[in-house]
Amino acid sequence: MGSHDRTRADAVRDRVEAELAGPLGTLGFDIEALELSPAGKRRVLRVAVDRDGGVTLDDVADATREVSRVLDEESDVMGEMPYTLEVTSRGVDRPLTLPRHWRRNADRLVAVTLVDGGEVTGRILSSDDTSATLDVDGTHRDVAYAEVSRALVQIEFNRRRSGTDGDPEEDDA
């Protein structure tokens, strides 16, 4: 793909994102990633969405309907080439790069690689536009986003969320 084709593909991607941002925002979604890639004689449009409180399968279905509606109404956005649409939620394996990512993952365990090469793992207690406070083995540690090279939510199995009670085995009875 020449640089001209790449520039054209980027322009289409940017236009699609611009067309979708408002309608999806009205439904409470943020576009976390938008990728347009060739797949034979078709293209694949992948849109990853997120929202406060997380994204359910019903949310993905709502977002898919909205994206389809917008692209059908603005038929010139995607051009003549057929495409396949995939709408997904922002995966937990995606790095925390924006303040809203930290906010939406409050109470989750996160592994942070610092710009200076240090590493810290702790539970997100709170966050604002510039930093997050982590519980690192019982000690509160403020981490400015400017100090963060990479931050990933850690998957935890069988962790009881605060406010849950009862034995998990009882749920199967």
Automatic annotation (TrEMBL):
It comes from the Bacteria. GO terms for biological process: ribosomal small subunit assembly; translation. It is found in: Cytoplasm. Keywords: Cytoplasm, Ribosome biogenesis. One of its GO terms (cellular component) is cytosol. Its main location: cytoplasm. Residues 23-93 form the Ribosome maturation factor RimP N-terminal domain. Residues 96-157 form the Ribosome maturation factor RimP C-terminal domain. Belongs to the RimP family. PANTHER family: RIBOSOME MATURATION FACTOR RIMP. Required for maturation of 30S ribosomal subunits. This is Ribosome maturation factor RimP. The gene is rimP.
